[in-house]
Specification:
By secondary structure, the protein is α/β, with parallel strands linked by helices. The chain has a single domain, classed as Phosphoglycerate mutase-like (Rossmann fold). It contains 7 helices and 6 strands; from the N terminus they run βαβαβαααβαββα.
């Protein structure tokens, strides 16, 4: 299965406040355009299902994708943003001054947001959500999951074996696509925070053409005049 992790488009709060799970945060006009653009970029991929965080900005990003593929959009609570607790909604300029912010940057894995969850807890539920989706679509070629920057970074880190303390090294831009192949011997990361063409992913999903090395060699003639089972060849 090709897992396509899509971050939601821009909102009026993107980059200025830690939005978290605040209700009523919708896409901006730019975000609406970005959602339509990402649906176009995914157009050549065989998407069979679309899932989304329950937060409005993600559902509004997922809707054009689901509409294009004529599938129902399903919300998944475990794809919701990290629970930032009391930090939710606060301007970044305030958070940067906190001693706890430095602690978060240095050792994020087990940092607990005041009144919220730890980064590791968020990662655990994110992976749980993807594994549940994977179980529902064992033969699907491609599935879309629309979520948030931190959640996508944590999911990617989990599947590629990057330590949770290092997840912030991953950059996930708005309306970007990250692609992971699941179900092979190991997870394979094909795209990360991609904002360009995804046509090469469609090529990867096509069955491989037989090569000279994989073609079954023709059986050589038996110089004795007998077939492979010892019968006389007429």
């Amino acid at each position: 299965m090709l897992l396509l992790l899509v971050r939601h488009g821009n909102t009026p709060m993107t980059g200025t406040r830690l939005t978290g799970r605040l209700p009523g945060v919708h896409l901006s006009e730019e975000g609406v355009r970005q959602a339509k653009d990402v649906a176009e970029r995914l157009a050549n991929l065989p998407v069979k299902a679309v899932y989304s965080s329950p937060l409005e900005r993600c559902q509004e990003t997922a809707a054009p994708i689901a509409e294009r593929y004529r599938v129902e959009m399903h919300t998944v609570d475990d794809l919701a943003e990290v629970d930032y607790g009391q930090w939710q909604g606060r301007p970044y300029r305030q958070l940067y001054r906190l001693k706890a912010w430095s602690e978060l940057q240095a050792h994020p894995a087990d940092f607990r947001f005041p009144g919220g969850e730890t980064i590791r807890e968020a990662q655990t539920r994110g992976i749980r959500a993807i594994e549940a989706i994977r179980a529902r679509h064992p033969r699907a070629a491609a599935v879309v999951a629309v979520s948030h920057a931190d959640m996508i970074r944590l999911i990617v880190a989990g599947y590629v074996g990057l330590g949770t303390d290092l997840y912030q090294r991953i950059v996930i831009g708005v309306a970007s696509v990250s692609a992971i192949v699941l179900g092979e011997r190991v997870p394979r990361l094909l795209r990360i925070g991609d904002s360009g063409s995804l046509d090469q992913l469609a090529e990867r999903l096509k069955p491989a053409k037989p090569t000279a090395a994989t073609k079954k060699p023709a059986r050589a003639a038996d110089p004795s005049g007998r077939g492979g089972r010892g019968e006389v060849v007429p």
